[in-house]
Design goal:
The complex is a heterodimer of chains A (256) and B (255). With 256 residues, chain A is mainly alpha-helical. In chain A, 83% of the residues lie in helices and 0% in strands. Chain A contains ten helices and no strands. Chain A has helices spanning 2-30, 41-50, 52-86, 88-103, 106-117, 122-145, 149-157, 162-199, 205-214, 218-246. In chain A, helix 6 (122-145) runs antiparallel to helix 8. Chain A is flat and about 75 Å long. Chain B has seven helices and ten strands. The chains are: A mainly alpha (256), B alpha/beta (255). Chain A binds chain B through residues 148, 150-151, 153-160, 164, 168-169, 172-173, 175, 247, 249, 253-254, and chain B through 50, 53-55, 72-73, 75, 77, 79, 81, 83, 85, 87-90, 98-99, 101-103, 130, 132-133. The structure holds adenosine-5'-triphosphate and magnesium ion. The site of adenosine-5'-triphosphate (ATP) has 12 residues of chain B, from strand 2 and helix 1.
Chain lengths: 256, 255
């Protein structure tokens, strides 16, 4: 059983990927596609290897912006959701504002923000945060509001304070929702950081993509893109891992 | 101990139309008395229990416990809901401790009793499992342990054995009677099962629906301690025929 699963989950996708890459490599030679239009995988890999030391710096910058935006989105999003759920007055005051920030395309905000906040990594952190915090607020608020009324009755029957009920009942109940929001937020943070870099920067993987394409160095743009998606996947995996440890009751039990 | 004086309850649904759940309920429950409530679905049994628990306000009449008007939940009252209502992120053991924790007591001092209760209800060995790894009946037993742990002097139980199979149900009934006889408490117990209502009770409250009313309060004149053998006692049969007649008579009449 175990071996069947490993084959299905890892071996088959890996083989498919290798086959696709081989086909791609062959096609670029067979049809003599110019390297600035569609570089061969081997050329992308080679260029990436050339750039390995410089990439460390750029990856670090983008990672820093992404994590900064993500951390802010949790630090602001979760308390905001709590306020919205607990205070109807604040809900009617804040919800339209939050939705408004979402209706403005972030790419449109970015240049203005950079004008206001200046250069460096901080404005990108802000862009990443603006892109990422919405799902955190919405999912956390949904989770907090979804506490079964019977659980609240139970808590009330013990005359527990509202704060104790929040801490011991509502927050843990909402935790899976918070993580659902966080998983979306981490991927959106990557996008936000790159958008910020596109608008104006001198470092980061987004910056590398932009400047590489303007010099027709498509291999470099591709290797930067690959790094970026690997980073996004790893970050997503990290959040899922934290979820597995924080919410062990969600793991399917006894089905191994 | 509990006094309900011409109590009325009308729910307002979200659309605004009223549901008359309880009509003119007057009932006295004595200290250490075991009273069961029977009646068809929707006759307001759960509502009555929630009113006594202070979880929902009455729309008419007065409710008091030991002479004090019920406006909010009282201390020293345990509630077993119709569903188990467990916390999915807590193990069975920690779910049992939840009651003392929420009451502000020190859970460390209740660990041994929690283990004993789980053992007593046949859940020994399941302490570290999560609720969703248990059957419905087992979950309900966890909820019963949770309510019993702080040893409340008043227990409000809403079909606590509803999710159990017939055999476990009998076992649990006798176990509850044993606990009640040992630790003297007042129990208000809702059930769908007429034999269960009679087996457990000092008095059976028979209710009829639309709106929920008390049809009759029947004293049960059977000796204690009670055993399953009582079901063959002629007095048992007389009592259950009487309850059945009270429940079904109004339906026959409207036909
Ligand atoms: N929160 C509520 N809002 C509106 N109506 C309600 C609410 N709770 C109960 N009711 C109504 O009150 C009536 C009595 O409900 P209740 O749950 O007390 O019945 P019950 O006797 O416990 O039924 P069952 O045996 O099926 O549990 C029903 O008609 C029900 O629709
Ligand atoms: Mg009910």
């Amino acid at each position: 059983m175990m071996r069947r699963r490993i084959v299905a989950e890892y071996v088959v996708p890996a083989l498919t990927l290798v086959a696709a890459l081989a086909l791609w490599e062959a096609a670029t030679y067979a049809f003599k596609i110019p390297r600035f239009i569609m570089p061969a995988p081997s050329a992308i890999l080679g260029e990436g290897w050339e750039w390995r030391y410089r990439f460390i710096h750029h990856t670090w910058v983008t990672l820093y912006e992404t994590l900064g935006g993500f951390a802010l989105s949790i630090a602001v999003g979760v308390p905001l959701a709590v306020l919205i759920v607990y205070s109807p007055a604040l809900r009617s005051a804040l919800y339209p504002l939050i939705v408004l920030t979402q209706s403005v395309p972030k790419i449109a905000i970015a240049p203005v923000l950079l004008l206001v906040v200046g250069h460096g990594e901080f404005p990108k952190v802000i862009v990443a945060f603006l892109v990422a915090f919405f799902p955190v607020v919405v999912d956390t608020a949904t989770g907090l509001a979804a506490t079964p009324p019977e659980l609240l009755d139970l808590s009330r029957s013990y005359r527990a304070s509202a704060f104790k009920t929040f801490l011991k009942v509502r927050l843990p109940m909402a935790l899976p929702f918070v993580f659902a929001g966080a998983k979306v937020a981490i991927t959106l943070s990557v996008i936000g950081a790159v958008v910020g870099e596109f608008v104006g920067s001198d470092a980061g993987l987004g910056y590398v993509i932009l400047s590489a394409t303007s010099y027709w160095k498509t291999e470099l743009a591709f290797s930067s893109m690959i790094l970026l998606s690997v980073m996004a996947i790893l970050l997503f995996g990290a959040v899922s891992l934290v979820e597995r440890f924080t919410c062990p009751w969600l793991a399917p039990a006894g089905e191994e | 101990m509990i006094r309900l004086d011409h109590v009325d309850k009308t729910y307002r649904t979200r659309r605004g139309d009223p549901v008359h759940a309880l009509d003119d309920i007057t009932l006295d429950v004595g200290e250490n008395e075991f009273v069961t409530l029977v009646g068809p679905s929707g006759c307001g049994k759960s509502t009555l229990l929630k009113l006594v628990a202070g979880l929902t306000p009455a729309t008419g009449g007065a409710i008091s416990i030991r002479g004090q008007a019920v406006r909010e939940p009282f201390p020293d009252v345990g509630f077993v809901f119709q569903q188990p209502v467990l916390l999915p992120w807590r193990s069975v053991f920690d779910n049992v401790l939840f009651s003392v924790e929420m009451l502000g007591l020190d859970p460390r001092q209740y660990r041994k009793q929690a283990g004993d209760l789980l053992e007593l209800t046949g859940l020994g060995g399941f302490e570290t499992k999560y609720p969703r790894e248990l059957s419905g009946g087992m979950q309900q037993r966890v909820a019963i342990c949770r309510a019993l742990l702080p040893d409340p002097s008043l227990l409000l139980m809403d079909e606590p054995f509803g999710a159990l199979d017939a055999m476990t149900r009998e076992e649990m009934s006798l176990e509850l009677l044993r606990i009640w006889e040992e630790r003297r408490k007042t129990i208000l117990f809702v059930t769908h099962s007429i034999p269960e209502a009679i087996l457990l009770a000092d008095r059976v409250v028979v209710m009829t629906p639309r709106p929920g009313r008390i049809a009759r309060v029947l004293p049960v004149e059977l000796p204690r301690p009670r055993t399953m053998d009582l079901e063959f006692d002629p007095r048992f049969k007389t009592a259950s025929d009487e309850v059945r007649r009270l429940i079904f008579a109004p339906r026959m009449a409207t036909r």
